[in-house]
Amino acid sequence: MDHSKHIPMSDVEVVAANIDGANVYGPDDEKIGTVSHTHGTPPGGKVVVDVGGFLGIGAKPVALPMTSLNFMRDPDGAAHATTALTKDELKAMPEHRD
């Protein structure tokens, strides 16, 4: 997927209603997780990403600073994010518990 042609989302747009369920892609453009929910708003907020698992079962939730994700919309308007973190790096993080 060529993310360079996607429209970056502003901090005002990065809210739960727009990003919950969004796919998260790693540096090699592999889908590495899905946004579960948020805590706070940009730039100081956190995004909880479910990593691994199958169809949401067995996924590990990890909390990331919103600043570590680049949120954007594809040409159809669907929100997604990219990050420099790999799936293995996310899996190594402590599990987030609400």
Automatic annotation (TrEMBL):
Ranges for domain PRC-barrel: 16-69
InterPro entries, per database record: PRC-brl_dom, PRC_barrel-like_sf
Superkingdom as given in the UniProt entry: Bacteria
Name of the featured protein: PRC-barrel domain-containing protein
Native source organism of the sequence: Wenxinia saemankumensis
